[in-house]
Structure formats: C-alpha cells, structure tokens
Amino acid sequence: MTRTVLVTGVSRHIGARVASVLATDPDIGRVIGVDTVPPPSLTRDGGVSLGRTEFVRVDLRSPDIAQVIAAADIDTVVHMSLVSAPSRNAGRSYMKEHNVIGTMQLLGACQRSATVRRVVVRSTTAVYGSSPTDPAVFTEDLEAHESPSHGYAKDAVEVEGYVRGFARRRPDVAVTLLRFANFMGPGVDSPLTRYFSQPLLPTVFGFDPRLQFVHEDDAVEVLRRMALEDHPGTYNVAGAGVLLLSQCARRAGRVSLPLPSPAFGLIGGAVRRIGLVDFSPEQLRLMSFGRVVDTGRLEAELGWKPKFTTTAAYDDFLDSRGLHALGADRR
C-alpha cells in the first residue's frame, strides 16, 4: 500500500537519517520532512542524503503544520522534533515551547485529520528520572519515584501525557511511544557525547552510575519498523548491558575528576552558559544515580533486538572520535 509519511525534526542527525531510510522504501509514495531550518544536506556538504524526501519549512508551534498534513494526505507521522538541550542562540523557554507546544499543535493537526492512521513519537528514558530509590531496572509500566522537574526530561513527561490523550481520543490511530536511552554513534552530537569528548571528566564524588546507550543505527531501524507497521504502545529502546561511568572514562582514555555534588553543579552552570556541555540538574542526577531500563517488550513485539550492545555503541562512538583507552596501542 502506498503511504505518505511525515517526519519532523529532519534538520537534526537522527531525524534526517529516518527520513532518508524511509525515502528508499518502494512501498512509500512520499516522504515529507519538516523543520524550522533546512537539513544540513541541503545547505552544506557532509549532511545525510535525504534522497527523494520533500522538505517543507514549518514551525511546529504554528497552525501551519495542519495545512501540510491536510494538503499531502499524510497517513503516518514520525515525530522526531524534540530538542534535548537549549542551543546557544535559543534559551530554555524556546526549547520548552518547541517541545511541548510544538507537539500539541502536531497532535491537534493529527486529531483533525481524516487520513492519519499511524503516529510514532520519539521520547526518552529520562522520563523515569534518576534517584537513589529507583528500581534496578525500569519497565514501561513503572513510574519515576521523583518526577523530573527540569529540562528535556520534564518536557518529555508532558509530551507523553499529550500523546496518551491523543491516543484515547483517536483509538483508530496506532500510536507508538518510543523511550530511547541516550543516542550514541559516530554522527551523534549531544550533551553526553560532548561530555565524553572532554579531556577531563568531572564526576560526582562517591557515585559510579550505570548507563545505557542505543546506537544510532539501531534507533533508526526501530523507527523505520514502527513507521511501516502498527505496534501501538510504549517501548523502551536501549542496547543490551550497561556501562559504569568509570568504565566509560577508562575506555575513552579520559581522567575522571571527582567533585562534591555542589561543585559539580557550579561547574555545570559555568560550562552551560558558555555553550560547552549541558550539565543540567537532570544531567547531575544521571551522573549520580544512573538509569537502566528493560527492553523485553520491544524485542517480543518486533522479534528483533538491537545489533549494538551498550558497550559496542559506546566503542563505535569512541572509534569515530579517535578516543582510546589509556595505554592502548596508538598508531
């Protein structure tokens, strides 16, 4: 069956890759990518090739997105346009408006559409929070002991609430919510990849949190599958296994600098203001208590599991940046 797919957030790496892979599928008639700025492949060399993806410049906070959906008879929406950290040019208020108001406008347009039959939304495992009272492993049915109160995690909690409301109002639409662990891979630029690229890694004294990653290739494959098939529900997405923060530092050949929690927060505020690394309060909690999720529901639903483990995803990122363990053979 010929489909028309709308992908939001195509100016960012993962969104562009999702649009690109969907555009190669012969069963998909059209792929329309939307964002506030053109994708890198349309503005300079080195970006992801979007193939036959049609780009439309639109701000999700405006009602214009409804016109795009109606004009193109969209039947599948893949919502990737969630910002995980404030940019240098736009502050936290813009980020929240983009994430929350933008999602509200998009879902409102989908609700009024007579053609939309499938909606896939990228979320994050950050909705579970990070606290000393957390379970060893989060399943999709568990809730945060301490609900996130800041930044991307708080936005994601609100976004998920609107997605669940939409699913109740439109039971005829297959709604899939994907909670991704932190993306990792050669093309990923995030607060966490920038953190691990520093020569010196501040850590919280007395804590060695467990971390999980999902490789960008596996993230794109999950999104591709969900865009082509009906798999309603909420799913955790992460590579198998965990890494301790101390193991991450050693594998990257970085020296850790343990700091008391208040000092870590002060340094985080300073480097965030100059745009180096986002040491937000939620990042501080992750670096203290970590977070691990169970992915059994996803694997059972799809009959598939990520190709990259957490360790393999992290090592691929390190290889792409030329980072190696201390004492390793360097050529």
Please name the CATH architecture of the domain at 3-184 and 213-238 and 293-307. 3-Layer(aba) Sandwich
Unreliable stretches: 42-46
Helix proportion range: 25-40%
Through-space gap between termini: 52 Å
Topology, please?
Layout: E1 3-8, H1 13-23, E2 28-35, H2 40-43, E3 54-57, H3 64-72, E4 76-79, H4 92-112, E5 118-124, H5 151-169, E6 174-180, E7 182-184, H6 191-196, E8 200-204, E9 210-211, E10 213-215, H7 216-228, E11 233-237, E12 243-244, H8 245-251, E13 255-259, H9 261-273, H10 281-289, H11 296-302, H12 310-321
Parallel strand pairs: 1-2, 1-4, 2-3, 4-5, 5-6, 6-11, 7-10, 8-13
Antiparallel strand pairs: 9-12
Helix pairs in contact: 1-7, 3-4, 4-5
Can you describe this structure?
The protein is α/β, with parallel strands linked by helices and 331 residues long. It has a domain at 3-184 and 213-238 and 293-307: Rossmann fold. The chain has 12 helices and 13 strands. The strands form 4 sheets. The protein has a 7-stranded parallel beta sheet with strand order 3-2-1-4-5-6-11, with helices on both faces. α1 (13-23) crosses α7, α3 (64-72) runs parallel beside α4 (92-112) and α4 (92-112) packs parallel to α5. The longest helix has 21 residues, at 92-112. The radius of gyration is 19 Å and the shape is globular.
